[in-house]
Every structure is written in C-alpha cells, then in structure tokens.
Amino acid sequence: ASTFAAEVSGSPEKACQYKIPVIGGHSGVTILPLLSQSQPALPSSLLSDKTKRKALVHLIQFGGDEVVQAKDGAGSATLSMAYAGFRFAQSLIRAKWLNQSGVVEMAYIYVANNEHVSTATEGLEYFSVPVKLGPDGIQKLLPIGNIDDHKKEMLKACIGELKGNISKGVDFVNKL
Questions:
Q1: Assuming Cys at both sites, which of 53, 95, 137, 174 could form a disulfide with 103, CB separation 3.0 to 4.6 Å?
Q2: Where along the chain do its domains lie?
Q3: What subunit structure does UniProt give (predicted)?
C-alpha cells in the first residue's frame, strides 16, 4: 500500500516513510486500505481526488493479481510479501528484544474474543487489525478507527467475502 501510494502521489522514494493501515484480508475486495489514516498523512491532492483515490485502492486490492498475470501464473508478488514480513519482524524485534511498548503493526489474527472488533466485523473470527505489540507479545487490539460511508460499504463487501474465505480455511485445517 505504501509503495503504490507513494508512486501515485509522484514520490516513489517516500514509500518507506508511509505506514498505511490495511484491514480485512489478503485478497481482492477483502483488502481494505485506510488511506485517510496513513502516517504520515498522504498528500491532500491524492486524498481529495476521488478518481485517483479509487484507482489507488483498486491497485492496492488487485496489484498482486496483476503481478501473477504478468508472470503467467508462475509466481506471486513475492517482494511485497517479503517487505510486509520484514516490517512485521522489525516491529516484533523492537517490541520483544528492544523492550519497546506500544509498537503498532497490522496483523491478521483471531478477533472473535474482542468485542469492539467483533462488532465492527459482524462477528468474523479472523480479521486484519492494528495491534499494539510489547515485550510480552500483543498488548492490545486497536480499533479500526473512523471510516467514511464509502469505506463502510467496502467493509461490508470485505466481510461477506471473508466469511467464505475463513470457512474454507477452517474446513481445510480440520481435514488435516
């Protein structure tokens, strides 16, 4: 998300500076980037332009699919996944081994026992949300934050798709 946002805003060299929360899942409409919650804030010229913003959200949601198509099905967006893994590992290291509290990172985790998140996600068991990490692991699941009506509609589509994805995943694991 940060790479695409930096490129669309005309400053690809700033990609590593942005931290854009992406909630939901890991495929298509289940990927819900919260551009308005970026730290630091994305340029207002990007956020205020509906056409650019819509194109960016679509690119974030389906960019991995385009990579697979470009590789004729012989690979995936491995660099994106590697970078996401690196950022998460870096956050874990800061929290666990550098004893830092309050390190915030996104994680696709079990959320059914968190009333706030479970309500916002209509009872889904798993969802990507911001978590606060500390020396002993996850300190707290953080709220999704304020989202506009358009994002609420996107969230409904995300939830509908994730219900099926989660069911398939649970069935698969239960068959092992």
A1: 95
A2: 2-174
A3: Homodimer.
